[in-house]
């Protein structure tokens, strides 16, 4: 009887592992090249800029990986945003948020924190292509990943996007969880200090919300 239980547990574990791997493989098929883009991480901000960014317009993007509208905005604007960055016309300061995991005493580390910790591991190690593609997957495949993306899933995805062994292990072990929490909370305070309101997605230029309506037009409006 014990042997049958052990065999059953092994079979279930294999099914879960293979299912997670297949999901990662499907998502990784859409990997996007990010040639000509530089990444820097400082003061709780992840900055993406082109190699020739002198005179580029600058915008701050506030987003939460659990935010449905953030996912929609990414689907509608990320390709255009990346093209502008690669052309040296736009620098984007990404301000990740985690407020959808709760704030203050109501905070409970969940998908927002876990996802941010994963991309933060890549950003901290300067792995721009893996960073961009993991962020892209987390936004575009948000509905599929929200309930299933544990640290192992995120680590597998990062691996498939070409992340280094050190970054993959850092994600798998949750090494950036505390830093992600601190970063998300700092960006929430920054957003409230600048605008008086905490919500996402938000795009700020010169410390003020862009007037675009819908927000998906923000890049066109910025360059109009």
From TrEMBL:
It comes from the Bacteria. Residues 61-211 form the Thioredoxin-like fold domain. SUPFAM superfamilies: Thioredoxin-like. This is Thioredoxin-like fold domain-containing protein. Pfam families: Thioredoxin_4.
